[in-house]
Amino acid sequence: MDTLIVSRDPIGVFHPPSPASTGGAEDVVFIYKAHIMAGQVRPNRAHAQDFAWLTKGEIKTRVDEDCWLGIKDMQSDF
After folding, report:
1. Which Gene3D superfamilies match (predicted)?
2. What is the pTM of this model?
3. Is residue 40's pLDDT more than 80?
């Protein structure tokens, strides 16, 4: 799939809640704005079971509350 990443800088950073202190590294998710130019997604089945193209309203119904609160203001309404 050909994509155009709008900026080298992320539009947001999400810090998922970590389980009880394990002393390990913290998970961090960087969110980038991108445009799909051509092609189709072909997930590597060894790393992903599925994917979906979702509207802002649909994302809210598919992720947990902590994730939604962390990313909702980064989503475009159009």
Report:
1. Nucleoside Triphosphate Pyrophosphohydrolase
2. 0.60
3. yes
